[in-house]
Specification:
Shape: elongated
Strand order of the largest sheet: 7-13-12-9-10
Radius of gyration: 43 Å
Helix content: 10-25%
Oligomer: single chain
């Protein structure tokens, strides 16, 4: 009885074929939909990851430039960045201006322009590109990694670049690329020989010895070096670069026989940023300096002119001497003789003045040895005769 009641309450029943078929169809649709989404989602994930890799590479290059005042070249790039490959396992393309990899020709802080344009943006310092999944980069550098010209990028490329001005700011470059170091010129005296050197720093030198070119306005006529032939109409952007005077190393010297007066001299200096005789892209700097020439100065007083100079015999033996060829006089060791202006003193190796004199001296000669102007010198040797300050 109990068995029959149980069977009535829970009758045995299974799925029909139609129901099973419907379940399988639904499961197949879900699997198909998921498979179709895997590809786009994977590509999007790799695209996002590559953008992060490119941004990180750009920041690494900026950090290298800030620390070294130059960009890494293609050989150094893989060691500078954290990951040289994009998420598609392809190497990043690094495009850069080769002039920015060399400090001796300006580096980052010394240059004004670059040779790279990205789209409509000029003066790009460097570009980092990933060709994405198709890896069709429109612009590739030469075998050395350097590039000059317009960089073309497509919509599929993942690209980021930094301009030279942006890089200079991030590298902490201070002031202009080229500057004149002098803030004033030394004064001079009328009728005296005058020499002053003006120095520059930074920019892109022409060569290691003739680094810059100079021009002036307001030079007085008595300045004979450099020649003032480039003075008329001189302008930083004038197309007369060949007429500008070459520097010696990083400076140029003004010289001549001074004439009294005050001159306001405007100094111009230019470098070789453009690499040719053009002018539009050269770094230029100018500064006004005042040149003052005073009336002739009285010669300095001579503290020894009245008393003469005491010369001590430090040769270790007694000697003899004659004043203007007169009688022989003894010069005991460790004793002084007074040498006065207008006289000639002949000194002998023996105290009797026998034989020829070993040497002669005068007041002006002894004055040359008296470097501290205390009117004291000494003779330390007789063969040859040797004098020194005391």
């Amino acid at each position: 009885m109990r068995m029959r009641i149980f069977r009535r309450i829970l009758p045995q029943r299974g799925f029909t074929l139609i129901e099973l078929a419907m379940v399988l169809v639904v499961i197949g649709l879900l699997i198909g939909l998921g498979m179709s989404l895997i590809g786009p989602l994977t590509k999007r994930a790799k695209y996002t990851e590559t953008k992060e890799i490119v941004s990180a590479a750009v920041e690494s290059v900026i950090s290298y430039g800030a620390a070294n005042n130059k960009l890494p070249d293609s050989a150094a790039f893989p060691t500078v960045v954290r990951n040289p490959n994009d998420a598609f396992t392809k190497p990043l393309v690094y495009i850069y201006d080769n002039n920015l990899t060399n400090i001796s020709i300006g580096g980052i802080c010394g240059r004004k322009t670059t040779a790279i344009t990205v789209g409509s943006t000029p003066n790009a310092a460097f570009v980092v590109v990933s060709g994405s999944d198709d890896y069709e980069v429109q612009t590739t550098p030469n075998t050395s990694g350097a590039y000059s010209g317009n960089v073309t990028v497509s919509e599929d490329d993942i690209v980021k670049w930094v301009t030279l001005d942006e890089l200079r700011i991030k590298a902490g470059c201070v002031g202009s690329q080229l500057k004149i170091l002098n803030n004033e010129l030394p004064y001079g005296f009328e009728g005296s020989s005058y020499t002053a050197t003006i120095y520059a720093d930074g920019g892109v030198p022409f060569t290691s010895t003739n680094m810059y070119r100079w021009c002036f306005t307001g030079l007085p006529a008595w300045i004979t070096n450099p020649s003032p032939s480039c003075t008329p109409g001189c302008s930083p952007m004038a197309n007369d670069e060949a007429n500008w005077a070459n520097s010696v190393n990083n400076g140029i010297t003004l010289s001549g026989t001074a004439q009294i007066g005050t001159s306001n001299i405007t100094v111009y200096v230019r470098d070789n940023n453009d690499g040719n005789t053009g002018t539009a892209n050269d770094n230029c700097a100018q500064k006004m300096l005042v040149l003052t020439i005073n009336p002739s100065a009285a010669p300095p007083s001579d503290p020894c002119s009245g008393s003469g100079i005491d010369v001590r015999n430090e040769t270790g033996n007694d000697r003899g001497y004659k004043v203007n060829g007169g009688a022989c006089q003894e010069w005991k060791k460790n004793q002084n003789i007074t040498v006065t202006s207008g006289n000639t003193y002949d000194i002998y190796s023996g105290e009797s003045c026998a034989g020829p004199s070993s040497c002669s001296t005068t007041y002006s000669t002894q004055k040359g040895y008296d470097s501290d102007d205390d009117c004291k010198t000494q003779m330390t040797n007789i063969s040859p005769c040797t004098f020194a300050d005391r």
